[in-house]
């Protein structure tokens, strides 16, 4: 973990403290976007979500979860059969292989149940720290770490809460400044905000409720005004609204 000066750390904590209640109010229904009823369903859905939208995963799991209800069901399925059923999520061969191996490990080591620790989860096929954080935080209510997906990474950089691009290093930086009881919610809030306002291209900074606390937003707006001076009044009007 990179060393952080006390002044910089305090400034980042203060920024989180200011942003958190605004995002809470803006996105009161922020929660995991993957449909699930059990820890196993969430684990499978999260594996499927790699390089795939949550919307697509939810479409696929609608039928998948009716057919496969236990770890034994997944372990018994052939790789070809399962692969075809999850084909539209992309990388379906690797995902089918991981899900079957994960299910077999659950039967062999955990009596078919999803374990509740980081070490046990990340020992399963197809399960990295991000997936384990999703399951622990949303299925078991344990704030062990912070989920860092593309939205969380992008917003953390734009808000200057981290200088890193590596997800695990970003997570360590966020762990230092976000209250532990908010770790799971924090990811959901950033994901919701990243999808609706702070999008990758052409972020809607003029509509952003946390613009006053964002080091990057004013720079983006200034660049837009410089490139198209006639837009200055429109941007100001959107901010005033």
> What is the assigned CATH homologous superfamily of the domain at 39-139?
Hypothetical protein, domain 2
- CATH class descriptor of the domain at 39-139: Mainly Alpha
- Unreliable spans are none
State the order of secondary-structure elements, H for helix, E for strand. Answer: HHHHHHHHHHHHH
Helix content: 55-70%
Summing up helix and strand content along with how strands pair, one would put the structural category as mainly alpha
For the terminal residues, how far apart are their CA atoms? 42 Å
Percent of residues in beta strands: under 5%
The CATH architecture term of the domain at 39-139 is Orthogonal Bundle
> Could you tell me the mean pLDDT?
94
Computed CA radius of gyration, to the nearest angstrom: 20 Å
Note the overall shape.
Answer: elongated
Give me the CATH fold name of the domain at 39-139.
Endonuclease III, domain 1
Sheet having the most strands: none
- How many β strands by DSSP? 0
Helical segment tally? 13
